[in-house]
Design brief:
The structure holds two protein chains of two kinds. In chain A, strands 1, 2, 3, 4, 5, 6, 7, 8, 9, 10, 11 and 12 form a twelve-stranded mixed β-sheet that branches. In chain A, strands 15, 16, 17, 18, 19, 20 and 21 form a seven-stranded mixed β-sheet that branches. Chain A has a four-stranded antiparallel β-sheet with strand order 14-22-13-25. The relative contact order of chain A is 0.11. Chain A is elongated, with a radius of gyration of 34 Å. The mean pLDDT of chain A is about 85. By secondary structure, chain A is of the alpha+beta class. Among the domains of chain A are: about 200 residues, no CATH class; about 200 residues, no CATH class; about 60 residues, no CATH class. By secondary structure, chain B is an alpha/beta fold. Chain B has a single domain, classed as P-loop containing nucleotide triphosphate hydrolases (Rossmann fold, 3-Layer(aba) Sandwich). Chain B is built from eight helices and ten strands. The longest helix of chain B is centred in the last third of the chain and has 16 residues. Chain B starts with a strand and ends with a helix. The mean pLDDT of chain B is about 90. The chains are: A alpha+beta, B alpha/beta. At the A-B interface, α14, α24, α25 and α28 of A face α1, α2 and α3 of B.
């Protein structure tokens, strides 16, 4: 065995540079495969780890406070499969976190608040970092944030955190961070009972029932049973306000949300492994061919062919071992990065151990795979007895047909000679085509994903599944919506106005699934509801759903599906499927379609799309000056005015606003006599109930995910580029070594090094063109298959062509550079050999 | 006759692990146009080194090489390649045909690097092949299907197809049997008769007899020179005796 290893090491030393390059390829394989496997395994552990570390409840029911009754608790009390349950309250709304710096922008953040007492019911409330008890006691408004917020909001203990709701600001001091358990929406902050009581005056309050069940319980079925029970005992229709989350659903949703990046890395790792294996195979074959004489000599002096074959296997195992050892640190780092990104996708800020076993297994798999590849090729040594090996087999004898005869040369001789070289290296071409195809798939797919995610606006337009108006206003009741929409549309800044409603919760009774419904009058006016298949609803009996809902309710276009809203049930024809990642649980109907379920439907939201270049803030000010401030802001404001009349008008407006918000009053007028003067007013100018910047809010939501995708895409593109460079470097070194004599002769008869470098590099152009074409087709198919996972990625023909040309030029450039060794061929040395 | 090649204090030194070997020492030499110059000398005397320095295959360590009064010693590698392409032809001892190309392609590889393809060029190649005795039946054959003599004749056609101003040959018959060697030498003789300038390195008297000028190279210098009439215009026996006598004088 010692002499076998000695032979292997001698061979490695002889081809030191190529061995190192092969080792680097193996390291790339190791790092990508191990990190993909380890992160996918690790992701599967994150949600259970959240539960076990926080000891939180696993199943939740959420309902608006006004629809809640303590009678609901009886269901959990009496159900035998329920082990424990609790009832807590939370407040939440569309909130923004104020940016501490002057330059930064306030950030939309999905956060809800519970009181400290309720938090202790929900989970262990394990505060990991905090101020001292004395310091906390001195804080007027302490807040405990989920650990993930430390990074996501860039805050530390002792910092102030200002939450914005309309014009109202709630300022807290961060008292500590705790490891939050499962939560149904965004992140959860824990505040004092007093602050909770204060906030619930302004924000929407929800009641939550959390429950744990005995092992083996079908939580999904249990919660459906509860929903039926709750509906039965409720006077109002609670369909829209009741949402339940089973543990199984949360694990599945979390895993899907978390594993996107890892799946992409896994796919790309698979692609690169194909390229590397082909290259290793090619390298072994070339090595054996190049060393046939040495093999003959070794056999002649008594080495068995088995020992020689074993030395080749050992050589590649040593190289692969070097590669996988080198790859351990990158694999661990990449796994950590992927797990961090995955955890942040579900707002998990706790520690996550890096799974070691998948990394070790991946490394072993690479070693075994390379050893087997080497074995299958190295055994060919047995075909060469010493004499045949001395004569270099039969490979150097040419009896083949002459392709591209030079007497028929019409143009450039160098291109002709390159073509001759191309047809004479069939084996190499197949290997190269596979490698470049793999690299093209990686580059093109990464480029398409990266360019989509490089721009949060583009991501939104592709994957949002909802409309993204610049400004959306909710109006108070009692206004003529048609006239108001027309009035808004006539403003010079406005491009168009669409009317819609808050998402409405509908049920598919056959599958017992639920979706939130978007309603538009005419979908041809919508912009960012992107179809994957079929078309958007046109008629009142048509319904479109997201691809995720499609999977859950198991329908295809043309199917009829029952939809229930309240107590009304109607049949609709499924007309199309929409791409939606942000809120994947969506369905779409026309206004007429929804009126079949809810005949008194009247849209209360106005989606305003501004013209290119229009200033959104200035436009919001214009709306305020015309239609009054947002009613919520008026409610929160103080009585102001320099004169008595101004102060009376201000006080009257606040009272009217409160009546509209709290009691649902749609119109009011007042007349107050002060001495001889009568002060009058009405809610006529108070049309805006709330105003949101939908596009900006969504942008904040996707920015972090977009940055992660973009970063991974860039990493994968760089890896592809490096792999291509390494592959071509190995290929060229082998070609030049094999054709050392021919190249020397050609130099001798007057070919310059540049011309020869061009010829050698140009040989790879035909297989590269074929590879780029195949790779492009495969990339488009791959992007299509990722459609369900990530988003419908619109493939721009120009981008594809430009990328393909860039790949071609890059490949040729690398080959030309790698062929630089031709310059070192000394004609004199060759001739005097 | 004017000098087609001229050296001025040409030196070639090889270094290996600190040891220096001066193979050519301050050599001043003229190679005349139309001459069939033979370079002889004992093994290791530096004759092949001189041939490659003269032909631009290798760069001198010091001194200059002039081709038609143009200094080529400072040329870059690519300029030297262009020089060889335009002005030189080479015939090697090891023949060095391109194994993966047939006879026609081997010759056209040399031809098409210097000029564009044309029916006249292909005709010329075929004519030259016929002239050296390589019939049409061999044109599509690969080198491994030809005899050594046939290969070397193909090599000569490749060397002369571009009408080089000077043809270099390094032991062109060294790897051939006697009969094949004579056939190859006949080709050289015919080329010389047609005015081709030739510089050939050999250690074979039979080969040297074909030349018009014999230079004896020893210790990096030209030790002596022997002029002869054109081959075939004098008595072969006398020619041989006179050359032998010159070589004996040189200590060969």
């Amino acid at each position: 065995m010692q002499k076998v290893i000695r032979l292997s090491i001698a061979n490695i030393r002889k081809h030191r540079k190529e061995s190192i390059l092969l080792g680097i390829l193996a390291a790339f394989c190791g790092a990508l495969i191990a990190s993909a496997a380890a992160s996918i395994a690790g992701i599967g552990r994150i949600t259970p780890d959240i539960v076990s570390s926080s000891e939180c409840y696993k199943n939740f029911v959420q309902i608006n406070q006004e629809d809640y009754t303590d009678k609901f608790l009886a269901f959990f009390e009496e159900n035998e499969s329920v082990e424990r349950y609790d009832h807590v309250s939370m407040v939440t709304e569309m909130l923004k976190i104020k940016d501490g710096s002057d330059a930064g922008e306030d950030k939309f953040y999905d956060i809800s608040f519970v009181s400290e007492g309720d938090e202790e019911l929900l989970e262990r409330f394990d505060v990991t970092t905090s101020l001292s008890e004395d310091e906390i006691a001195g804080l007027p408004h302490p807040i405990y944030l989920d650990k993930c917020n430390e990074k996501e909001l860039d805050v530390s203990v002792g910092d102030t955190l200002t939450v914005l709701y309309g014009k109202r600001e709630f300022t807290f001091t961060v008292a500590g961070f705790y490891q939050s358990g499962l939560w149904t929406m965004g992140t959860k902050a824990v505040i004092s009972q007093e602050d909770f009581a204060y906030m619930e005056e302004f924000l929407e309050r929800y009641e939550m029932i959390a429950a744990d069940t005995k092992e083996g319980t079908d939580n999904r079925a249990l919660l459906k049973e509860f929903e039926a029970f709750a509906k039965d005992i409720s006077v109002n229709d609670i369909s829209a306000s009741l949402i339940s989350y089973s543990y199984e659903d949360m694990v599945s949703t979390n895993n899907t949300n978390m594993s996107l990046l890892s799946v992409i890395v896994a796919i790309m790792a698979g692609v690169i492994v194909i390229a590397v294996i082909v290259m290793i195979r090619f390298r072994i074959v070339s090595d054996i061919n190049e060393q046939l004489v040495s093999i003959g000599v070794l056999e002649a002096i008594g080495y068995k062919s088995g020992e020689i074959a074993l030395s080749y296997i050992a050589e590649y195992v040593i190289i692969a071992l070097f590669g996988v050892i080198v790859s351990i640190i990158p694999a661990v780092a990449l796994t950590g990065f992927l797990l961090d990104k995955a955890a942040s996708a579900v707002h998990y800020g706790g520690e996550h151990a890096i799974p070691v076993i998948p990394i070790i297994l991946s490394m072993l798999a690479i070693l075994i795979f390379i050893a087997l590849t080497a074995l299958t090729k190295a055994l060919s040594v047995r075909k060469y007895p010493p004499v045949l090996a001395f004569r270099k087999g039969i490979a150097t004898h040419h009896f083949k047909r002459t392709y591209f005869p030079l007497e028929k040369t019409k143009g450039n001789i160098h291109i002709r000679l390159a073509l001759k070289g191309f047809v004479q290296s069939a084996g190499q071409n197949v290997g190269l085509t596979v490698c470049i195809t793999a690299a093209t798939v990686m580059v093109l797919t990464s480029f398409m994903i990266g360019s989509l995610f490089a721009n949060a606006d583009r991501v939104l337009r592709s994957v949002c599944g909802h409309e993204l108006p610049d400004v959306r206003i909710e109006t108070v009741g009692g206004i003529d919506r048609e006239t108001f929409a027309d009035e808004l549309a006539e403003l010079p800044e406005v491009n168009k106005v669409l009317t819609t409603t808050d998402s409405v919760s509908i049920t598919f009774p056959e599958s017992e699934e639920r979706a939130s419904l978007d309603v538009y009058k005419d979908y041809s006016d919508t912009e960012t509801i992107i179809l994957i298949e079929g078309r958007l609803p046109v008629h009142d009996n048509e319904l479109a759903v997201t691809s995720q809902v499609k999977g859950r309710i198991k329908v295809k276009t043309g199917d009829t599906v029952s939809v229930e809203y309240g107590k009304v049930k109607r049949d609709y024809v499924v007309c199309g499927f929409v791409n939606s990642v942000i809120d994947s649980n969506a369905a779409y109907m026309t206004e007429d379609g929804f009126k079949k379920l809810y005949p008194i439907y009247n849209p209360n939201l106005f989606s305003i799309y501004l013209n290119e270049g229009a200033d959104r803030e200035a436009f919001a000010d214009l709306l305020t000056s015309r239609y009054g401030e947002k009613i919520s802001d008026i409610c929160d404001s103080e009585v102001t005015g320099d004169t008595l009349e101004e102060r009376i008008k201000s006080a009257a407006e606040i009272k009217m606003a409160k009546a509209m918000v709290e009691s649902g009053v749609s119109y009011m007028e007042y007349a107050i006599r002060v001495g001889d003067e009568v002060i009058t007013g009405s809610t006529g100018t108070m049309k805006i109930k709330s105003m949101t910047y939908v596009k900006e809010d969504y942008k904040d939501m996707v920015a972090s995910a977009a940055a992660s995708f973009s970063a991974v895409s860039v990493i994968l593109m760089i890896v592809s580029g490096v792999v291509v460079m390494i592959i071509l470097s190995i290929l060229m070194a082998s070609t030049i070594r094999k054709q050392y004599k021919e190249l020397g002769i050609m130099k001798g008869i007057g070919y310059t090094s540049k011309e020869l470098k061009f010829q050698v590099a140009a040989r790879i152009i035909p297989p590269t063109i074929i590879a780029v074409l195949i790779g492009t087709i495969l990339s488009i198919l791959l992007l299509g298959s990722l459609e369900m996972l990530i988003a419908k990625i619109t493939v721009s023909v120009i981008s594809v062509v430009v990328t393909d040309i860039a790949i071609l030029l890059f490949t040729f450039g690398c080959a030309y550079k790698a062929a630089g060794k031709i310059e070192k061929i000394s004609v004199y040395e060759l001739m005097t050999e | 006759m004017k000098a087609i090649l001229r050296t001025d204090k040409l030196c070639k030194t090889f270094s290996n692990e600190g040891l220096q070997q001066h193979v050519i020492k301050n050599l001043d030499l003229d190679i005349m146009e139309g001459d069939f110059t033979i370079i002889m000398g004992s093994s290791g005397s530096g004759k092949s080194t001189l041939l490659y320095a003269l032909s631009g295959m290798d760069k001198p360590s010091m001194g200059k090489v002039f081709f038609n009064d143009e200094d080529i010693s400072e040329y870059s590698n690519d300029q030297l390649a262009m020089f060889r392409r335009k002005h030189c032809g080479f015939v090697f001892q090891s023949i060095y045909l391109l194994e993966n190309m047939n006879v026609l392609d081997n010759i056209l590889t040399g031809a098409l690097v210097a000029r564009k393809n044309s029916p006249e060029l292909v005709e010329k190649v075929k004519e030259l092949l016929n002239k050296v005795g390589i019939g049409e039946e061999l044109w599509k054959k690969y080198p491994n299907q030809l005899s050594g003599g046939e290969c070397q004749r193909v090599g000569i056609v490749r060397a002369v197809v571009n009408d080089p101003q000077i043809l270099f040959a390094d032991e062109p018959t060294g790897a051939l049997n006697s009969s094949s060697g004579q056939d190859v030498l006949d080709v050289f003789t015919e080329l010389h008769e047609n005015g081709q300038s030739i510089v050939m390195v050999t250690h074979d008297i039979k080969t040297a007899l074909r030349g018009s000028r014999v230079l004896y190279f020893k210790d990096g210098k030209v030790e002596g020179e022997h002029r002869m009439e054109k081959y075939g215009s004098d008595d072969l026996k006398k020619r041989r005796e006179s050359l032998q006598s010159f070589l004996d004088e040189m200590g060969w």
